[in-house]
């Protein structure tokens, strides 16, 4: 059986994040990738210049086409900029009884550009987070979703993660990449013990698409039959290696992408 995952997210014209990063990640990890495009962005490594939202009914048509034919093992949800799009995605997932849903609450690009309308935040909280096997916010996203200040330590990260669990998510992976210190610490929190995922922080400005890549790597692991803890640990290792190799690529003049194919490409 071929492992298949779908990404439901926005397109990044520079290829470093969004749909493009997700499909690269699926391919690198041995999973066939399908896609549902929710928005087109005109962006590069320096920032987002324009966003064109795909009509919600066409987003739903893409979901129906993919799920009615392909045996989807996991779904990664990324950029959904409008409340109507979130509603269409939630309805589509429910109609097709989608499982192994990974929700990456994309709100702001690496460049600092906002990608989610403020009024859509509540739709995300009410319609998609309760459907998630796991939600993967970074520190600013967790703060925005819980109405709190950005977590400053592990205890505050856990408090915010448990607030997101109270919204209906089965698990929360709160990412510490925006924190400080020698270690980049993520916490996977569900109904059992807290799983700490730690890696040495790597000094690089080429971090474009990190969150997209981590969430899609988790979805890839789930599609291959791993449990969530194993999928998250494998994803952390993959992303850390992709960050470590990022400076081998020379892409653009701003925040460059990770090296998704670090294990297979031959670089000069």
Write a structural description.
With 268 residues, this protein is an alpha/beta fold. It has a single domain (4-248), classed as Ribokinase (UDP-N-acetylmuramoyl-L-alanine:D-glutamate ligase), CATH 3.40.1190. Helices cover 36% and strands 20% of the residues. The chain contains 8 helices and 9 strands. It has helices at 18-28, 56-67, 83-95, 120-128, 139-146, 154-165, 210-223, 228-244; strands at residues 4-12, 32-44, 47-53, 74-77, 101-103, 134-135, 172-174, 183-189, 195-200. The strands form 2 sheets. A 6-stranded mixed beta sheet has the order 3-2-1-4-5-6. A 3-stranded antiparallel beta sheet has the order 7-8-9, with helices on both faces. Helix 7 (210-223) crosses helix 8 (228-244). The mean pLDDT is 92.
